[in-house]
Design brief:
This protein has 14 helices and no strands. The chain is mainly α. The relative contact order is 0.15.
Length: 385
């Protein structure tokens, strides 16, 4: 007992506290309903669980489809050492998204209705199917890691033979719903602030997801290297940083060109909360990461590369929260702010995802040196620690 106590660290205590409070909020949510734990209302029915847990969660999981497209479709094999950790992050991200959706639905037991009650004219229907299918695809993409761990060589060979079409399907599905999440907000042009509303929202969501995916690849590689004493593929991550800077610049040019062509630039001169949040999003998510990652000497520095990726990720989170909350809050006059219970449940899901990643890396060959080596001799026991 004493030894177990000594193993406790500050962050473990914090994690236990977050999960405990999150479970208490979960109990209230499913026994007393949404009104007992949220500040949602009829005038503002989508809050933090949609804005952060789903929109941000899906965006942060973009590294999975991105790295699969780079390595298996464009066949740039030098990036394969980054594949498994990116797919693991994406898979855990989508699992958390599904659980978050259960919290937000008024009748979570009816989540399966999309399987049989088809509405092909609905964007939400398309998103629901893409998320379900892509979550399954991510599991199949990550399954070789599990099969290697338990030496299931025959099944491993079968999965590897069909891996290419699976990954192509995954890229297509992810492309569809990354952009479709932006399409969800096209139906409320009169309720969104003009700085965020645009017919190009699906394009913005897709391009920013790609940029964020590059940032997540750097972010998870850096933290994994520090936490698990793994080598950091600096030449690869440096190139990833350059790609991220290019996409950030592209999104910046398109967004401001759109504002100029639609006559919305004057909104930037109006002193209000929306203007300040827009400026914060642009500075943190575009100007700072571009200024850092466009310089070669910064991309060759572990510290600056990591800082650039963090800035890029925070900017993406701000963008999704601005679109889903800030842009709608003022116009709806709902004055929505997430409750303590909403925040607790969100933090609980994040912490559980981080713990799951930790144990997956600890017990599965996520950072295997040769990811695609066939295991031909089944009598050889390979230890994966």
């Amino acid at each position: 007992m004493k030894a177990a106590f000594l193993r406790l660290t500050f962050w473990k205590v914090i994690a236990v506290a977050i999960i405990t409070f999150g479970l208490y909020s979960t109990f209230l949510r499913f026994t007393q309903g949404l009104a007992s734990v949220t500040n949602l209302s009829d005038s503002f029915p989508w809050g933090m669980w949609i804005g952060f847990d789903i929109l941000c969660g899906v965006c942060l999981a973009a590294g999975g489809f991105l790295i699969c497209a780079i390595t298996h479709i464009f066949n740039i094999e030098e990036f394969k050492p980054l594949t498994r950790s990116a797919i693991l992050t994406a898979f855990l991200g989508y699992v958390m998204v599904v659980f978050a959706l259960l919290f937000d639905l008024g009748r979570p037991l009816n989540i399966w209705h999309a399987l049989i009650m088809w509405n092909p004219h609905s964007v939400m229907f398309e998103v629901a199917w893409c998320v379900m299918l892509y979550s399954s695809v991510l599991f199949l993409e990550f399954s070789p890691v599990i099969l290697e761990r338990f030496q299931l060589t025959r099944l491993l060979k079968i999965v590897k033979r069909v891996s290419l079409p699976i990954m192509i399907l995954g890229v297509l599905l992810s492309t569809l719903h990354q952009s479709s999440l932006g399409s969800l907000f096209l139906i409320v042009p009169a309720k969104m602030h003009p700085l965020w509303y645009s017919p190009l929202l699906p394009v913005y969501f897709y391009l920013s997801a790609i940029g964020t995916g590059f940032g997540m690849i750097i972010f998870e590689s850096y933290l994994s290297a520090r936490s698990f004493n793994k080598g950091l593929e600096m030449p690869l991550l440096s190139r990833i940083g350059l790609f991220a800077a290019i996409f950030v610049a592209a999104v910046f040019v398109i967004r401001f060109s759109d504002l100029a062509l639609t006559g919305k630039l004057h909104y930037l001169l109006i002193p209000c909360q929306e203007t300040y949040m827009f400026a914060l999003e642009i500075v943190i998510g575009m100007i700072i990461p571009f200024a850092i990652l466009i310089q070669k000497r910064n991309r060759q520095s572990r510290k600056w590369l990591y800082f650039g990726s963090v800035s890029l990720i925070v900017g993406a989170l701000l963008n999704r929260l601005n679109v889903s909350i800030t842009a709608l809050n003022g116009f709806s006059k709902a004055n929505y702010f997430p409750s303590v219970n909403e925040i607790a449940i969100t933090m609980m899901l994040v912490v559980i995802g981080m713990i799951a990643f930790k144990y997956a890396v600890q017990y599965l060959p996520v950072f295997a040196e040769e990811e695609h080596t066939e295991v031909l001799d089944t009598n050889v026991v390979v230890e994966n620690e």
